[in-house]
Amino acid sequence: MEDKPKSDLIRGFLFACTEKSEAECLERSLFATEKIYGPVVIRIRKGDLLFLNNLDTNKLYGVFKAIGDGKPNIEQGAFGGRYPYQVKVEAIGEIVPLTDAKKILKGMKIGRNTPILKGKLVTLLKHFLSTQKQAELPIFTPRVTSNDLIQELIESILNDQQPMDIEEEIPIVESTTFWDFPRQSYGLTPKGNNKYAGVTPALIIYNMVWRYTEPGDFIVDPMCGSGTTLDVCKAEKRRAIGYDISSARPDIIQNDARHIPLEDSSVDMVFIDSPYGDNIKYNDHPDNIGRISSESEEFYDELEKSMKESHRILKEGKVIGWLIGDQWVRHKFTPVGFKIYDRLCKYFEPMEIICVARRGQSSNTDAWHNRARRFNFYLRGFKYLIIMRKASKVSRRDRPRKVEWAYYKRG
Ligand SMILES: C[S@@+](CC[C@H](N)C(=O)[O-])C[C@H]1O[C@@H](n2cnc3c(N)ncnc32)[C@H](O)[C@@H]1O
Description:
Blueprint: E1 12-17, H1 19-28, E2 30-33, H2 38-41, E3 49-54, E4 59-66, E5 71-72, E6 85-98, H3 101-107, H4 118-130, H5 146-159, E7 178-179, H6 202-212, E8 218-221, H7 228-235, E9 239-244, E10 252-254, E11 267-273, H8 297-313, E12 314-324, E13 327-329, E14 332-334, H9 336-345, E15 349-357, H10 366-374, E16 382-389
Parallel strand pairs: 1-3, 7-15, 8-9, 8-11, 9-10, 11-12
Antiparallel strand pairs: 2-6, 3-4, 4-6, 5-6, 12-16, 13-14, 15-16
The structure holds S-adenosylmethionine (SAM).
């Protein structure tokens, strides 16, 4: 499902610049930012309104209109390549600088990763109307006065009867190795099916997608379940294929993860949230690895076959994310995560292990918490997201190191 707004209502977006980059933004009519705000930029559509905040001078420039959709590398050479996520803009009339931008934006709770919607957008636009007369001289010679144009915009936004989207922050990638997502999904549309037993929190995949791929990249989930990976990829403008031994919806291809029908080195990222043992009944398919106990070596042997396949289809240097949790059943602890890590190490180079808080478990009830205390065991509180990469022929470790020799003068 695409993360399309419910309506095509005009939204506003905020960009930032500095003393150094302001002129380039205005001369090129190009607003740009780093990959951190990539998720915001790819959601900007032609016709959305844009504002430019100079962080050094504390000015807010407006009003601009996106004349195309936001995307990476519209002008590759711009800003010395530092700001690849870009949108082409056009000023609506003359450019008006508002002073005290920080106060205005803070007062209205406008941030760089929150689309500015209906009422708030109108209030912000009105700032540009009211100050226009006393504002400093416009930067460029006015073609038409912006007052009428802004007034027109305000009226069309107010008269638009379409249902308004909920104002929602566009998530920014996690900065630590501990991730805790209170909800299974994010954004305006569901991602996967939160009723599917063992559904993956969508923000895990979102973080993987934004950390390790670019828009247009090709992502594969060999055990796709209810399709969370497909939905996240669509919303984040990646191409994706999802397989599962038992297909839960038409866009998921029925396939065994131990034989993936794709060419060698053809994929930019693999994400797998595999069974953790036989704790969940996914389906009755005889080849469902979730029917094998994680207490037996067979479980790891079978999953290893899908690791080998994932390795084969991944391009060199590209990343796999494997989500896995430990097991404690009938007084027996099985370190499933460590065992999976060991097997993955046979094929991939380790990069990171993320600790993901487990929420929404069926055991997350008072009765189970009491039982855990009374009978002296623990409920599983986290899962591992194991992040590894397929080595490049010349991997970082093997690359010849540049040695800086110090020469001493003799005598
Ligand atoms: C934890 S669930 C995946 C959840 C999924 N990421 C989602 O968000 O809905 C594990 C999935 O592995 C699938 N599976 C088990 N054995 C498989 C196999 N041999 N090949 C492909 N998929 C398999 C199960 O059918 C199940 O849907």
